[in-house]
Structure formats: structure tokens, C-alpha cells
Amino acid sequence: MPFSSFGLSPALLEVLAAQDFSQPYPIQKEAIPAVLKRRDILGIAPTGSGKTASYVLPILNNLQGQSVTKNRHARVLVLVPTRELALQVRDVFIQFGSELPERIKTIAVFGGVSINPQMIGLQGVQVLVATPGRLLELVGSNAVHLSEIDTLVLDEADKMLNLGFQEEMKRIFALLPEKHQNLLFSATLSEKLADINQIILHNPVVIKIEPQRETLDLIEQTGYFVSLERKGPLLRYIIKKNDLKQVLVFTSSTFQADNVADKLCKNGIDAVSIHSRKSQGSRSEALREFKTGKLRVLVTTDMLARGIDIEFLPHVINYELPRSPKDYIHRIGRTGRAENPGEAISFVTPEDQHHFRIIQKKMGKWVTMIDSANIDMKGY
Length: 380
What we know:
Mean pLDDT: 87
Strand order of the largest sheet: 3-4-2-5-6-1-7
CATH superfamily of the largest domain: P-loop containing nucleotide triphosphate hydrolases
Radius of gyration: 22 Å
Low-confidence stretches: none
Number of domains: 2
Largest sheet: 7 strands, parallel
Shape: globular
CATH class of the largest domain: Alpha Beta
Distance between the termini: 52 Å
Number of helices: 16
Order of helices and strands: HHEHEHEHEHEHHEHEHEHEHEHEHEHEHE
Helix content: 40-55%
Structural class: alpha/beta
């Protein structure tokens, strides 16, 4: 089923062809026609499955030919949990809207940076991508108004609810017009997500895309039994011995992310940590250098992982295991994307072994394990 079968405008089809988008992903096959018909959607699909384009393309299509609203009255609102994801979604709107005959202004707003440039940038905005806290600040300053919103998107809604945005989101919902289209996308379906579904969705089209076994099969998974004190030397050994480039390392805390990055740098491995306590400028610069291959190792936490979108990321290392099997699959899913193979390595301490067995059982795939006690890490 090609994109041309959905009823997208000729201008959008030209953009897709120019950027070598030929066949839609499963989530796009189901979501695009439904969004074009102005249906509400509850879309559950794994990270890397093409969720963003599944709503960006039909929203851009629906905006073409619409009359311009009053200044500072956005037509589309996309709510996201992190600054990185806000920038990523904004870039997708710009990517697909760049050659359309009618310019559609898209802006991303988020905290951690000066509010004044964002207030100025909201002049003539049509698509607003926002984190909840900064959006409410801007609404409170009359820099933007939500009374003309006709499409609301909640992207990564599972993480938004888990990160404690419920009260802010209720305040935002109260500012929206009574009639508008609601599009809710998530990687998982939790009880909290089911509750919010009942509040905001009206007779939704429910789309559930299961993780593809073939995707996991593209990822070569290896686990290392390792003591806590040998984790650092083992990480350096694996990176140096195998001459790994573009390595994404996951830790469980901002403190540990900084600690791991510092020790890598002290041992001659170019590494930077990014997390919620870093400035937006430093985070954006680190991501840019990592994506272009100038930075060898990026150390991060689960919260920031949602904004890291690299099509050909070759290596993921779980320096510390995540709390849930779903988060584990999300982490390793950063690699093995777009039919490209990848490698995922996990460090498993004696205290982690039971938890890692549960992760493997839930994943339905057993990981090859290596005992690092037999590895000579002297000098690493």
C-alpha cells in the first residue's frame, strides 16, 4: 500500500518521494486515513515504528487550504514530555512541510531556556509543540491562546503520565474548545493511559501495533555477568577492544550518567552525559555531535531516551538495567531500526540476575551471556 493510496495532497506526495519515503509503516497505514477523516485515535505502537509521521503527514494535509486563525491562536497542539522530543517532533513537521505551497509555521516551546524568544516566535504559529509546564507559562502571559485548537496530539502519553504531568494536562484540557480532534499515541497501554482515554477520546479508532519479532532479531544481544566494581573497566574494555563508535550508554540516574561519562573521558574515550539537569544548549550540542559521529559515547537516562532518534545507531549498552522489561525493549530498540542491524550489551551484576531473567522472559528471547571474570581488563 503506497502513500498515494491515502488521499494525501500531491504536494505532500512529492515531498515524500523526494525524501525517499516509499512504503508506509503499519502504524502509518492505519493512522493516516483515520486522521484525515478527523477521527480520534488511540495508537499503541513501539518506539521507532513511525508514530510521529503517522500524525504529522495527515495534520499537514488537513491544514492546507484552511483559513489562518487569529494571531497567537494555534490550530494544532502537540504535547510531549521532554524538550528533546519537542525539538524532534518540530523537525518532522518542518521536514515534511518544507515544500508545501502554503507555509505552515511550527514552533517548539519548553522550559530550561529563556521564555522571551519563544514568546516572540509564537507570532503566526499554527502548529505548537510543547511541554506542559512551559505551555502553561506562555498561556498565563497571553503569549499564546488555545481556544482555536482543532487537533490535540499527546505523544508518548505513557511517559507523560508517569512523569507526573496529570494536573498540568487537566489545566490544559480545560483551555481547549469543546470540539476538537484528539490523537493519543503511546508505546505502552497502562491503567493511567486507559483512564485518560476515557476522559478525552470520543469513539476512537484503536490501533495497536505489536513489536515485531524480526526487529528484535536484528539486534544482537549480549549480556555480561560483572561485579559492581568491574563495570567501569568492562565498559572501557568493550569500547576500546572492539573500537566501537556511536555508543549510547544507559544509566539509572543523572549522577551515574555524569560519573560514567567523566571516567570514560579520563581514560581517553570521548564521552558526554545528557540528562534533565543539563542546560538545553549543552544537551542539544551533545546530541548534534553524537548524531553526526563527532562524539563517540553518549551517556543518558531513560527520561532523555525518548528524544534520541538516530536511524543507524549501531551500539546500545545498558550500564545499569532499567526497572521494567518494557523499558529494556525501548532502550535496545534505539538500535536495530529501519531494517538495520544493531548491537545491545547489558551489564548484569549478581543482584541483577533474577531481574534480567524476568526481562528476557517477558521479551520472549534469551540473551547470550558472558562471564567477565574471565576477561583480562588490566590497563582498562
